[in-house]
């Protein structure tokens, strides 16, 4: 390892400065503000004086079954969507890595939902999930089961609301992971496959011993990013179910937005986001420990 | 400490809300026209077109004042107002849904209009609107129209099942009679869904449309006299029983989900629980077959909603006399009638009502005027209203989704009472 001729730390810092300043201003500072507000009685626009309440807001939200349910929903959503979406994206990427006719067309089709704004996708899926036999999803399931499927009102059914949102989210997001994995696949040298074939590895063997190790870093990146995106779940909930039925599809961010902007309870919303931040931070650190990237 | 917190809140707001445009310094007398920033809710297409016309006419008639209109969707209107207030970015003239007035006035965002509007204009307002626009003995807001809520029906379908058509609120269907009528209508309906409750709407609609059900059963959202309280009122036995009936209609499949907002105009349902604003559209769709009926009586008499969007001048406005001229213009009989012709609302001034073809003695919408006297209950006039409505909307959504009515209402009442306690009973801060 030859030592650099000159110390380049100042240059590095000056190049990182714009991004660091942006992060500090738009992520760090609001978080510090939220942290401070969580210990007060702050209300949006209230003429009453703000008081220091200590842990009161935290005590309240942790005793609130609705908030705990929202936390659980976030966890469940991440635990289902992250593996499912990653596996699905890998499958699509492998399919599109074959020399097919009309490949650019398929690639565009699979990637297209990513380009649509989530709010638009959510509105469209509300229509797809329409209750009754004429709703597209119900009609499709009826056709698939030769009429054995009894139509459901997915978005207003406690058992189906969150799974319905999961499906929408996966459909919208899978193209993004697919493109990243596709890039990873194409970076694996063809010689490795040839060598594996000479050593007598079949298709499955090649996948296990060449493709997966070659994709390791890409997969780790995809899993971490998908996890963070999964925790940020908000738009779909707001548009499709408003957190209902009951708290069946409520998420922490949705609950916080509702408290702060609908009921002006800023301190309560801030406390929710602080608790949530700590949990997401812990999850992300854990993932980093478990999934060390190879240099 | 307070300054620090306010600063922190402001920073939070700035990082959350998109930064609005910088307001220019107040123009001098010879500095070109006065700019008035006006926020209006998007409403129905017809309403939007009228308000744009009105602004154009006002700007042409008053070369010294230039009104700039910003149209905002009503779904999260209050949240927008709160964020703008925090960022110091409220417009000069603000339109908002009636019952939010007390919260905004309590927060100190509104100017009293008593000294700004001529007495002749103030005295012309309907009593229901004058009451809605007042808080703590001052007039803060004026409305060009009051609202009407009822059941729109298709006469031919109702007569086909032998339904009696109530002539007025006193003759309203009882809740039991109404449930039986739904069953009879369902027998002749292809999908069994015969009632539209506008479940496709979001936000304030649910409180406006279904708090009358509570009042019709002898319950309410909160106490109407101090001390302000929701417990024992919103979650009382009467309230639970009444909303259980509504839940039963939904459970039985009598209510159309109305995703496309065409349940009534498309002929899928015989009855639509909706406001005055549907009159132009429904009239066009079904013509003379359209009939307007009072809401069902849940035991204590038919009750209905009232109050609507109204106008106020914010404390941020530095030319209130120009803003008051704009409000005065909107309240001229011709302008009131132009707006109510577009949205079917009850004209908000005595002079306009007297000239209205829709609300005259033989007008098709006279029920709305008849209801405003006895049967219409204003939404609670308290700064706690944003929390009350948020909690009730959530409860109604839960009830709509089949959750236990008592549980949903008890949670809402607890949430409201906690907030009242946190705000020390919302006493006026002078």
Q: What attributes characterize this protein structure?
A:
heterodimer, A: 295 residues, mainly alpha, B: 430 residues, alpha/beta, D-Maltodextrin-Binding Protein, domain 2, 2 domains, four-stranded mixed β-sheet, 17 helices
In one word, what is the shape of chain A?
A: flat
Which overall shape of chain B is indicated by the principal axes computed on the Cα atoms? globular
Instruction: Assign the CATH architecture of the largest domain in chain B.
Output: 3-Layer(aba) Sandwich
**How large, in whole angstroms, is the Cα Rg of chain A?**
24 Å
Major sheet details of chain B: 5 strands, mixed
Q: What portion of residues of chain A belong to β-strands?
A: under 5%
Q: By CATH's scheme, which homologous superfamily of the largest domain in chain B applies?
A: Periplasmic binding protein-like II
| Proportion of residues in β-strands of chain B | 5-15%
Largest interface: A-B, 42 and 42 residues
What's the CATH C level of the largest domain in chain B? Alpha Beta
Say how many strands of chain A there are.
0
What is the quaternary state of this protein? heterodimer
Number of helices of chain A: 12
Total strand segments of chain B: 13
Quote the distance from N terminus to C terminus of chain A: 15 Å
SSE order of chain B: HEHEHEHHHEEEEHHEHHEEHEEHHEHHHH
């Amino acid at each position: 390892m030859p030592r650099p001729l000159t110390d380049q730390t100042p240059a590095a810092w000056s190049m990182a400065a714009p991004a660091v300043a942006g992060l500090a201003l738009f992520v760090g500072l609001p978080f510090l503000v939220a942290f401070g507000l969580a210990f007060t009685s702050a209300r949006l626009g209230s003429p009453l004086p703000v008081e220091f309440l200590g842990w009161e807001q935290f005590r309240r939200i942790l005793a609130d079954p609705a908030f705990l349910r929202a936390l659980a929903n976030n966890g469940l959503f991440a635990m289902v969507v992250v593996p499912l979406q990653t596996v699905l994206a890998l499958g699509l990427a492998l399919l599109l890595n074959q020399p097919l006719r009309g490949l650019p067309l398929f690639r565009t089709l699979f990637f297209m939902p990513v380009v649509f704004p989530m709010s638009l996708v959510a509105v469209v899926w509300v229509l797809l999930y329409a209750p009754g036999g004429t709703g597209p999803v119900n009609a499709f399931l009826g056709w698939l089961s030769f009429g054995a499927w009894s139509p459901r009102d997915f978005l207003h059914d406690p058992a189906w609301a969150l799974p319905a949102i999961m499906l929408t989210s996966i459909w919208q997001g899978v193209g993004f992971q697919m493109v990243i994995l596709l890039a990873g696949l194409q970076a694996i040298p063809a010689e490795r496959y040839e060598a594996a074939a000479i050593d007598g590895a079949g298709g499955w063997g090649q996948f296990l011993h060449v493709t997966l190790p070659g994709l390791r870093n890409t997969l780790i990146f995809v899993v971490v990013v998908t996890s963070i995106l999964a925790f940020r779940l908000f738009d779909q909930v707001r548009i499709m179910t408003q957190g209902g039925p009951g708290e069946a599809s409520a998420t922490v961010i949705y609950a916080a937005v509702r408290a702060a902007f609908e009921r002006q309870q800023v301190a309560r919303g801030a406390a929710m986001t602080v608790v949530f931040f700590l949990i997401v931070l812990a999850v992300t650190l854990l993932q980093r420990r478990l999934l060390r990237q190879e240099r | 400490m307070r300054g620090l917190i306010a600063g922190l809140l402001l920073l939070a707001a700035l990082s959350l809300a998109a930064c609005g445009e910088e307001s220019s310094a107040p123009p001098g007398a010879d500095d070109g026209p006065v700019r008035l920033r006006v926020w209006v809710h998007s409403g129905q297409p017809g309403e939007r077109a009228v308000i744009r016309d009105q602004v154009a006419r006002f700007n042409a008639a008053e070369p010294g004042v230039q009104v700039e209109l910003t149209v905002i969707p009503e779904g999260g209107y209050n949240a927008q107002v709160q964020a703008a207030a925090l960022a110091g970015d409220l417009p000069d003239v603000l339109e908002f849904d009636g019952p939010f007035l007390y919260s905004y006035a309590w927060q100190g965002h509104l100017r009293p209009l008593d000294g700004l509007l001529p007495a002749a204009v103030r005295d012309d307002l309907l009593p229901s609107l004058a009451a809605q626009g007042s808080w703590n003995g001052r007039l803060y807001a004026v409305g060009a129209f009051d609202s009407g809520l009822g059941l729109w029906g298709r006469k031919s379908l109702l007569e086909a099942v032998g339904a009696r058509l109530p002539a007025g609120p006193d003759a309203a269907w009882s809740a039991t009679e109404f449930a039986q009528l739904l069953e009879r209508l369902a027998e002749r309906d292809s999908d069994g869904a015969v009632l539209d409750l506008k479940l496709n709407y979001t936000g304030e609609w649910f409180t406006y449309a279904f708090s009358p059900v509570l009042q019709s059963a002898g319950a309410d959202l909160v106490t109407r006299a101090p001390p302000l309280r929701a417990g024992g009122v919103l979650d009382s036995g009467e309230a639970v029983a009444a909303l259980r009936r509504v839940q039963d209609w939904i459970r039985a499949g009598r209510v159309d989900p109305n995703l496309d907002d065409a349940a009534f105009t498309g002929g899928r349902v015989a009855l639509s629980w909706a406001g005055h604003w549907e009159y132009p559209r429904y009239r066009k769709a079904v013509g003379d077959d359209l009939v307007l009926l009072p809401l069902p009586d849940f035991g204590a008499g038919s009750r209905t909603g009232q109050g609507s969007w109204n106008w106020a001048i914010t404390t941020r406005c530095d030319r209130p006399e120009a803003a008051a001229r704009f409000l005065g213009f909107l309240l001229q009989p011709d302008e009131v009638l132009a707006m109510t012709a577009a949205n079917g609302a009850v004209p908000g001034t005595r002079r306009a009502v007297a000239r209205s073809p829709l609300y005259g003695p033989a007008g098709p919408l006279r029920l709305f005027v008849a209801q405003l006297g006895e049967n219409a209950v204003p939404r609670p006039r308290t700064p706690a209203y944003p929390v009350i409505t948020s909690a009730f909307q959530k409860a109604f959504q839960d009830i709509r989704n089949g959750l236990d009515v008592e549980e949903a209402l008890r949670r809402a009442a607890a949430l409201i009472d906690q907030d009242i306690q946190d705000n020390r009973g919302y006493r006026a801060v002078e």
